[in-house]
Specification:
The chain is an alpha/beta fold. Helices cover about 45% and strands about 15% of the residues. The radius of gyration is 20 Å and the shape is globular. The structure holds nicotinamide-adenine-dinucleotide (NAD). The site of nicotinamide-adenine-dinucleotide has 28 residues, from helix 1, helix 5, strand 6 and strand 9.
Length: about 350
């Protein structure tokens, strides 16, 4: 079922014979990344003025008022519901899709088949919708897919340490359903762009322009994370700012890459704006800083004196973190579309996280 949210301007039934409105569609808009992305899309739309496509957002949950304000139309719906997606197809001429909706790594490991249903089934639905859009309006649909370092799988801690910085095409043996799903999403995007309906007589060549980033753990000052295995970093900071003790679920020596949410949004904007001819691959690593959990704790404690942080590793979640690389090679992103991180761990704390988080919990 497709339910428009009770606010602003929305028209659940497009009048027949009326031209469909050009639109950008964001799924999973109510999540951490949706928050940052929609703020940025709204800012771009303000600059473009009347020529800007409508911003259409959907999520399985009601969207918060501050997210709704960034959108022209919002809907509560499930990406697994094909009938709902057909309705969207009938209402809008979608030129760009930002497919953020997913069940994250920790939740996914409690219900792997459900994660597969949402993360792969929902992604196929969105890719199909994009390909159908391209067929009906005759223009390629740009499709952004946020992949994850969960697509990697290191055999052991020793193998992880020995591997050091990993490239996009190595160690792709994910240990989690979420990681398997992300890797499959990358492959499906490539398939829909280059090979979709290979044998059909009436096939559309390259209906979509698929672009994907394998993100590290992302830290946002605006939202408290939930359901990701990299959440110990941001959780530690938010707990300290709120004056709450924090029990870290991984060992102090655990090391994976992180970045701030503004860096993640900047990466999406840059990749989506890059000329196609400059792209040498569909999926890119991006990297910023790679602290250990102990580095995080030390910085949190020096920033919030008295912060109580203890380490009580959970064997299962630890094994997931141990399977993710400690650093990713982002040279292709730097070369092809000018990616460059804005922060070290220290500047991320000093310039972005601490001022905003202090304000949030003041
Ligand atoms: N946050 C990170 O550290 C990180 C790192 C790497 C990749 N990613 C990817 O970025 C994307 C966004 O992540 P996030 O941190 O915003 O996650 P999030 O969990 O905060 O947001 C995901 C959103 O998807 C929605 N959703 C879930 N199932 C849905 C369904 N069936 N239909 C419609 N909506 C549904 C949820 O309600 C939620 O609002 C995800 O694809 C995630 O895998 C995130």
């Amino acid at each position: 079922m497709l339910s428009p949210q009770a606010h602003g301007t929305h028209h659940p039934h497009a009048p027949t014979g009326v031209q469909r409105k050009a639109a950008i569609l964001v799924t999973g808009a109510g999540g951490e990344m949706g928050h940052g992305l929609l703020t940025m899309l709204r800012a771009h739309a303000e600059v473009a003025g009347d020529d800007a496509p409508a911003i259409v957002a959907m999520d399985i949950r009601e969207l918060a008022p501050e997210i709704r304000e960034c959108c022209d139309h919002t809907y509560v719906g499930d990406i697994c519901d094909r009938a709902m997606l057909e309705r969207l197809l009938a209402m809008y001429e979608i030129g760009e899709v930002y497919h953020l909706a997913a069940l994250l790594s920790t939740r996914g490991e409690f219900a792997p088949e459900t994660a597969h249903h949402v993360n792969v089934g929902g992604t196929i639905n969105m890719l199909h919708l994009a390909a159908e859009q391209a067929r009906t309006h005759g223009r390629t649909v740009k499709f952004f897919f946020p992949s994850s370092i969960a697509a990697y799988g290191m055999a052991s801690v020793a193998a992880k340490r020995a591997a050091g910085t990993v490239g996009e095409d190595e160690h792709l043996d994910p240990h989690t359903m979420y990681g398997c799903n992300k890797l499959e999403g990358e492959h499906l995007g490539r398939y829909y762009e280059f090979h979709y309906r290979k044998l059909a007589k009436d096939r559309t060549e390259r209906p979509i322009d698929f672009r994907s980033i394998r993100f590290p753990g992302i830290i946002s000052a605006e939202t408290v994370p939930s359901g990701g295995t990299s959440d110990y970093g941001p959780e530690m900071i938010h707990a300290a700012a709120a004056g709450k003790p924090y029990r870290c679920f991984v060992r102090p020596d655990s090391r994976i890459p992180f970045m701030t949410m503004p860096e993640a949004i900047d990466a999406i904007v840059r990749l989506m704006a890059a000329p196609k001819a400059s792209l040498s691959r569909s999926t890119y690593n991006v990297a910023s800083f790679s602290p250990s959990a102990a580095d995080f704790a030390a910085l949190v404690q020096s920033t919030f004196p008295g912060a109580e942080i203890s380490f009580e590793p959970d064997a299962g979640r630890q094994s997931i973190i141990d399977s993710w690389p400690e650093s990713c090679d982002d040279s292709a992103a730097r070369r092809d579309w000018g990616w460059s991180p804005s922060h070290t761990l220290e500047t991320a704390f000093r310039e972005y996280l601490v001022p905003r988080i202090r304000e949030r919990y003041a």
